[in-house]
């Protein structure tokens, strides 16, 4: 865990690489470079948002909405809410231009302990669980054609998920541009898959198949609890809109490109999602959607005939791109946390040749692989959805608090105060309502959050640590520095 670094170790960890064969030995030192342009930012946001969600979540939205009409309203509402949240995060991201997203904002607004608790939950549950689910979904759809009519063996799925996680980690370790090129390609692929769905749906509609829209509001569920659950399912498909804030320091001209990327990405994704759901509802009945675990595959089986195999293929491509984007962005969160002393110093090291946070990427990969061992890893999602909503609410609360506490702080982007207030009220509603609907999941989530408090006091707040603990931490840092050819980031004064 974080500790003071000895002079000898500091010489190794912060040594500039000026020897021959070190292409990055320049006057700027060893640090993350600004290599992400506007379209890279758009590709990261769209690529992460459009994962497996849009291909499976329509069932959850429809189930809790009760009707086709309300389901479409929920999809539109979820997109608008995500856009409002993203604009609030644009102010946060340009006001606090640090990588790390929520972690950086909570830290500046409320101090180190709440920020560490977010990092604690994100490190061991939120991020690796999401990555594990995405990797398993990819493997499931890739292997499905080899086992027609039945589920692929879980061992085969888990093995392929582990391989793809390691592969994408290696790409991200080697070159930032390679990672963004992978993201660009697979973002285009998944958008193409959704275009196929939309075009096929429009074609089916033009043939006169409007029977599923004769009574669009029939069966609407008006209970607030179920409306909230429907919104949760919708927001799950939009999750990831804040990931570009994790890499603000690597974004070229972030004051312009961050809000531009948000304003391009979120409306684009909302339009695509709504039209894709219209296509689903035109082709499939409510019973068919509710009986399906993968709506896009059921859609393809009914409408595409011999070409139905392309839907599992495109879903796999979609999850592949989403996993790559999540690995790229979330590794920066842990890098920043370690740089601030909330994680072992080894995680804040940068490879001197590739200028990538290699130890952070590898550490995240290892935790993800551990979660792949658990066969019921999907159960974890039920326990962390509440936690994720809670910390998003806390981040936006930080925006409102900083407006009051530090009104003179430079804000290149300053949204109307109405937007964060609306977002805070809606998020507070979504956070508190599950306390009555799913108290067990909420309780487990809170217990895990509070379990981080003693960790914080022992490993971070406690200044007089035992000498053996300090030495072991030094050894870990030195081993990682030598093994991965890494040094600490160098900042220009």
Task: Briefly characterize the structure.
With 493 residues, the protein is mostly helical. It has 21 helices and two strands.
What does this structure look like?
Belongs to the amino acid-polyamine-organocation (APC) superfamily. L-type amino acid transporter (LAT) (TC 2.A.3.8) family. It is found in: Cell membrane. The protein contains 21 helices and two strands. By secondary structure, the protein is an all-alpha fold. The protein has one domain: Up-down Bundle (Amino acid/polyamine transporter I), CATH 1.20.1740.10. Strands 1-2 form a two-stranded antiparallel sheet. It is globular.
Strand order of the largest sheet: 1-2
Contiguous runs where pLDDT drops below 50 for at least 5 residues: 1-27
What number of domains?
1
Q: Provide mean pLDDT, rounded.
A: 80
Q: What class, by secondary structure content?
A: mainly alpha
Strand content: under 5%
The profile of the biggest β sheet is: 2 strands, antiparallel
> Given this structure, which CATH class is correct?
Mainly Alpha
Order of helices and strands: HHHHHHHHHHHHHHEHHHHHHHE
Named CATH architecture: Up-down Bundle
Tell me the number of helical segments per DSSP (H or I, 4 or more residues long): 21
Question: How is the CATH topology named?
Answer: Amino acid/polyamine transporter I
Report the helical percentage: 55-70%
Q: Shape, please?
A: globular
What is the first-to-last residue Cα distance?
A: 27 Å
Considering the protein shown, what is the CATH homologous superfamily? Amino acid/polyamine transporter I
What's the total number of strands? 2
